[in-house]
């Protein structure tokens, strides 16, 4: 009986870990709220869907011909995406990345 309970407990832990890793830990309403807030932002931006291996700086360097400072990119990203941690971007999610080549 103890073996069955232990096996069931291991399966539950594995299932919950897999669910958390594949779907993320943020509620679904947070992404919609972020998108609506970033539309009203005063900065130029591009909506980019994060791919595996992408970081905030790698995407910013890819879309901009000029290379802005890291501090400026982090500050502008935080303005465009207020509830997102720039160090923990989720694969498959679309974020507003600052675009510096054509400022209004």
UniProtKB/TrEMBL annotation:
Keywords of the record, alphabetical order, are:
Signal
Q: Where is the signal peptide?
A: 1-19
Q: Is Iron a UniProt keyword of this protein?
A: no
Which InterPro entries does the entry mention?
Answer: LysM, LysM_dom_sf
Domain LysM span(s) in chain numbering: 46-97
Identification of the protein by name? LysM domain-containing protein
Q: What organism is the protein native to? A: Sporolactobacillus putidus
């Amino acid at each position: 009986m103890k073996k069955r309970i232990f096996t069931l407990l291991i399966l539950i832990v594995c299932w919950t870990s897999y669910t958390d890793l594949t779907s993320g830990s943020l509620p679904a309403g947070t992404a919609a709220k972020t998108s609506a807030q970033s539309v009203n932002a005063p900065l130029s931006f591009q909506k980019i869907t994060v791919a595996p291996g992408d970081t905030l700086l790698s995407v910013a360097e890819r879309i901009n011909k000029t290379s802005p400072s890291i501090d400026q990119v982090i500050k502008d990203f935080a303005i465009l995406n207020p509830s997102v941690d720039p160090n923990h971007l989720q694969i498959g999610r679309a974020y507003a990345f600052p675009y510096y080549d054509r400022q209004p």
